[in-house]
Specification:
The chain is α+β, with helices and mostly antiparallel strands and 145 residues long. It folds into two domains: 32 residues; 98 residues, Sporulation related repeat (Alpha-Beta Plaits, 2-Layer Sandwich), CATH 3.30.70. It is 51% helix and 23% strand. The chain contains five helices and four strands. Strands 2-3-1-4 form a four-stranded antiparallel β-sheet, with helices on both faces. A hairpin with a 2-residue loop joins strand 2 and strand 3. It is elongated, with a radius of gyration of 22 Å.
């Protein structure tokens, strides 16, 4: 019977301390700014909502104007013969996901996309928030343009 009480006490203390660590680190990690999330290997992540891929860009010209009037920045880049339209570009996945609410409210469909970036020149452009140049550099370097 005594062994049972010792075992129950050990399990209870493990749960209490485990919960304490979980809540402490959960609160701590929310305070850490998520500017450029870089790994020790020098990689960074870029997140964006893709709202369209078209061969004929006249389809989206009016839509871009409407989105920009609502304060939503639209970036474009070429992938082969197609033009890709993206919004809510960020190095923070949370910021990009927050932008999805705006798109849904306005009646747009989207696909959450991400890019893993290793090129230091592109990472520098990310830090400067020169997202149009980032997309141009990414797809120019891959020979897709």
């Amino acid at each position: 019977m005594r062994k049972l009480w010792i075992l129950a006490g050990a399990v209870l203390l493990s749960c209490v301390f485990g919960s304490g660590y979980f809540f402490f680190f959960s609160m701590y990690l929310k305070e850490v700014p998520l500017e450029i999330v870089s790994s020790p290997m020098g990689n960074s992540s870029l997140y964006y909502n893709q709202i369209g891929v078209f061969a004929n860009t006249t389809i989206m010209d009016q839509e871009i104007i409407q989105l920009q009037e609502k304060g939503i920045q639209v970036y474009t880049f070429r992938k082969g013969d197609l033009t890709v339209y993206v919004t809510h570009v960020s190095t923070s996945k949370e910021e990009t996901i927050t932008g999805q609410g705006e798109l849904t409210t306005l009646g747009y469909t989207y696909v959450l996309k991400s890019e893993s970036i290793t090129d230091q020149e592109v990472i520098t452009l990310l830090k400067e928030r020169s997202y149009q140049k980032v997309f141009e550099k990414l797809y120019e370097d891959q020979g897709i343009r």
